[in-house]
Amino acid sequence: MSNVSQGNVTKQKILERAASLFAEKGFTEASIRELTKDVGLKNPASLYNHFSSKNAILEHMLEEYTDNNIDVFEHRNITEILQANPTADGVLSCLQISYPKDRIDYYLDVLCVMLQEQLRNPLVCKYVSDQIILRAEVNMGKVIEKLKELGIVRPDTDPDYWVKLVSSLFYSFATRRMLGIGDNAQGYTGRSMEEMLRETFEIMLARCGGTAA
Fold first, then answer.
1. Chain Cα centroid distance, residue 147
2. Which long-range contacts (CB under 8 A, 24 or more apart) does 119-128 make?
3. N or C of the chain: less Cβ packing under 10 Å?
4. pTM over 0.85, yes/no
5. Cα distance between residue 94 and residue 72, in whole Å
6. pLDDT interval class at 56 (50, 70, 90)
7. Helix intervals (H) in the chain
8. Alpha carbon distance 172, 197 (integer Å)
9. Cβ atoms < 10 Å from Cβ of 115
10. What integer is the mean pLDDT of 83-103?
């Protein structure tokens, strides 16, 4: 294996182990020395050959999470999805994020880190507000415009109203997840994020339904 390839493997291993460690202990509490040992490197200097700091590791995670989110949506044929399934489930399918199956645990750990750190880490707060939430709003707006174009909802449907409503659900989900009282909390019996979004889209289609068959 070339030095470049080996370096990429090590870098990815650092990211995956860091995501797991940060999710378990918290970004602030986890130490570079602990991460170095977890990855199997000789000393922190070896880790710094790949990332200049702990903040650099976190920033790379956030960028990778965001870039993947954008890439998945841009390559998803929302016209085809909505034509085949002009229902709340179809809308939900357009917005759901998909990650490579072999990396799903990594992305879930990164999400957990974001939710834990969003209120106390300025870097995470900026990414969550400017990238994650904003991107979700942009994507939702595109889906509504496509629904209007296909005649599934009326032309006078106000995208901003429904975008803000869905955005508020994302904020609620993030807060509940951070506090440990959301979907994944032990003994949680309330409605899941997916259920709440589906119900919201059902209301939107019922109130704003267009002329499409």
1. 23
2. 119/178, 120/28, 121/27, 121/28, 121/58, 123/55, 123/58, 123/59, 123/62, 124/27, 124/58, 124/62, 127/62, 127/66, 128/174
3. C
4. no
5. 10
6. very high
7. 3-25, 32-39, 44-48, 54-74, 78-84, 88-95, 104-117, 122-127, 134-149, 159-179, 193-208
8. 12
9. 20
10. 84
